[in-house]
Amino acid sequence: MAATRYRRFLRLCEEWPVEETKRQRDLGVFIRQRVAQAFREGENTQIADPETCDQMYESLVRIHNNYYKNKYPRLKDTSFTGVTVQDCKMILATDILKQMEDMKKGTWRKLRERFYAKKSEEDSK
Length: 125
Fold this sequence. Notes:
2 domains; flat; transit peptide; mitochondrion nucleoid
C-alpha cells in the first residue's frame, strides 16, 4: 500500500506547477521537498500513520484542483484593495520583492554595501 501512496504523491508532484517568479518560496517546490523527505526509500518506505498520509494527499489534491475556489466562487476577481490577481502575482514575484527591499535601504547603506563589496573583491585579488 505504501507503493500506491508513493505513486499518488509523485503523480501530484508532476502535475503541480512550479512558479518561476517565486524562487525559494514556491508551494510546488516545497511539496516536492516534503514528499522526498517523507518517502526517502521510495516505494519501500514504511508509513507510520497511513490515515494521516491519505488525509494530507486528499487535502493537497483539493488545493491543486481548486476545489474551494470552484465551490465558493467569488463575485469579483479583486480584493478589498481593488488589486487584481495578476497585479498580486506581479507584486509577489521574488524579483519585485527584492527591488522593494532595496528601495527601503537608505542611501548611506547602499553606498556602504557597494564600497564593502568592491573592497572585498580587491582584497581577494
